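Usage

Read records sequentially. Each one opens with the input sequence:
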Amino acid sequence: MSDRLMTALKVTAGVTAAVAVGTAYVLVHEHRRKLKKEKRVATAAAGGSADGSTPSVLAVDKLIELLAESANAAYQLIEQTRKMVHEKHVQTGASLENCVDELQKDFEAAMETVMGSIRAKHGVTEQAMSAAMVQHQSNPTVAAAVTALREAMGGKAPPGYGQASPSSETEAAKQRRRKKAGKRTG
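and closes with the structure output:
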């Protein structure tokens, strides 16, 4: 086989491995959330909340905003991880699977940090967000936002990816300036 084909196969395998890592993360996270939800339901049935306080439920629009921001951040992290896996593979010559395995723990920690920082930025706890998702689960817009987050964690770009964050707007402006500069020089 040619070197180009081998490289293409290796890159494809790397991307596939990164998606598999993302999917595994989503499955583990969903399982943990399901267990927490069952615990909350059981505690609520007993007449209280898990931490002894009355949780405040987020408004639908705030929940959708948080879910969209989380989906964008999760997808961006997955894209960065894919690049890191590929770079590590190219630099070290190690197999893509080994590169993915080495970066797995860092990826999981980074994902938890990103999600936690988004919640903290908006002053929302994971419990409040989960309670809002349960309360508004029949809302089609909320359901679509939750699906977008799950898909983003699985490696699929969320709707409107990059439009919500100021840093991506800055990047888009930079790209426009580069195009204009290229037209002037070319």
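Summary fields computed downstream for this record:
- The chain is about 80% helix and 0% strand.
- The mean pLDDT is 79.
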